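Minutes, methods subgroup
Present: GH (chair), OT, SY

1. OT presented the first of two proteins processed in the latest run. Sequence and structure tokens recorded below as shown on screen.
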Amino acid sequence: MFEDLKKNLEQERRILVDLRSIQASIEYSLSDEQFYSSAIDSLLKQLKLLNKAIPELLKEGSPINKFSDNNSQKEEKSKIIKLSYVSPSTKEKRYVTINEADKKEFLEKLKLSEGMIKGIKNAKKEESVASIQKPLFYAQISNKYFRRLSEKLVPQIGSMATDLKKANIRFLAPTYISMIIMSMFLAIIASALIFFALMIINPNNWIYFWVIVLLPSVTAMIFYTYPASEAKSVDKQINQEIPFATIHMAAIASSDIEPTKIFRIIAMSKEYIAIGKEARKIISQVEVYGYDLVTSLKNVASRTSNKQLSELLSGLATNISTGGSLKSYLEKKAENFLLDYKLERQNYSNLAETFMDVYISILIAAPLVLMMMFIVMNVAGLGLGGISITALLFISIAAVVVINIIFLIVLNFKQPHV
């Protein structure tokens, strides 16, 4: 009896552990709520059925039962039965004792919960494996040959190291510098081969020796400016997301939830790509490095590429440390961010109207006037500086095409992200 009771209690302990595991999964996932709810219900039902069998086990082991009628004792014993099963997750054989009337329901709930828990564990395992990113082979090779040199150069180009963090580029500064040096080395080899090939074709091509200098220089410039360019891109993307992310955070804060969970929800959301990365930095510092939330907020605020997000996180850190209302603070910031967002859209609309007027004047009205002028000049047999009317016509067409391309590039550059 006592052994059976012990095994039932062990099974209840396992159920509580599984419930905690599912609860942790819910905190990190905003999807499949029905799936998690079904798993919790099945585990709670098993817990209830196991608890229901405990009084019968205690009666069975009670000394009073020794003086009871044999028929009565048999009747009591017939109410509880022993079950054995193999857990699909651990492959361990387990034993439980329950009421005979509850056998069918217990087995159904057991099968359901074991399958779900196994699926949750497999999903967690796949997610953790997918989240581990192996270092690039190119980065490994670069570090192997140029790591010592790049570590000496890091203090001299500290701004690039800062841009790497702001741009969320996953390379450390020494590794990235090693990749720049490696790329320059390969560019020198490639440019030297090109120069020698030109010399073989014609010895007079020695004037192209500048290729050996130009190609490595352009390569180094591209690598050097890329982090700053990417940081600006992240800054623009955060500007588009921050009004709506702040509204979302204010709505979550209104439920008086623990502040860390606000950033966990934002981090897991697929709607805020850029801000989600910053939120994951905060969660990582809290849960991995052991910083408190206020310190984590200040650290991320000092390294983010966006000024508005930096102010928001710094204000949240101050608000949490002083015990202020997160809901009120986030609602006010959301109003300000949303107003800035509307003003930006209004400015873009005004700019687009100006561009439209210029486009109509230069690329619609002006070519028509030129065409009329060319027709008159052609009839009169006139030219312009010795250039024929046909050549002037082709030059005009080429100019219209180039100006159109310039207009498209400028509009695309000025257009805010949706």
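2. SY then presented the second protein from the same run.
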Amino acid sequence: MEIKNINVVKIGGNVIDDPTALATFVDIFSKLEGPKILVHGGGKEATRLSKGMGIETVMIEGRRVTDRATLDIVTMTYAGLINKRIVALLQAAGCNALGFSGADGNIIKATRRPANPIDFGFVGDIDPKDVNDTLIRLLLEAGITPVICAICHDGNGTLLNCNADSVASAIAIGASRIAPTVLTFCFEKAGVLSDVDDDNSVIPLITKENFNDLKENGTVAKGMIPKLTNALDSAAKGVKEVRICKAENLLNNTGTIIR
């Protein structure tokens, strides 16, 4: 298969945690033409399993602290249960998918985050240069859709829990070394909104210039700031276009474009 363009799509808990939403998304994603890669987070499944096993879930600033016991649970959940559930659904939809953690095929390495100022445990940060784009090219040329979870490895035998948005951005930057790449974050809203209470107030285009204005006037705040910073960084490092939209709008042109 000649690779002329690549789509990288990231889904999170709003899709993963809802069996109906996941089935609908898989049907839509399978119809996305051309070479494609799916990146997923973990949703609430790991928290439910932790509770059932009597292991406390600790969150700091919205991020999971990953001690050794939690690392075992998130690896089983993200790289096992959720990843294979998605792969099976894609196979049923006629999309030949292959599931990966970062360790599989050395597809993406990470570096353990320093303990200062906050010790998040076995949590990793990613450099896009460490994405194995040679393997990604081989898979896409063979007509295989990689399904990549947010469990990576450090190259020294240790698994690391990584931010799924960061994994998706790094994979998209790596894919852009193969062919022009579009990165889509599937979001619970229709895009980035100028009014959080109005789903029709989608901001159609965000650039580095108007992003600063949107931050200063408070239009974008809290969790949307790192997501957009990530998106702008991806665009600056070679990704053709980044898009934020609802999962069900993947095949149309709605949402917010970040360039």
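Chair's summary of item 2: The chain has a mean pLDDT of 93.
Next meeting: continue with the remaining queue.
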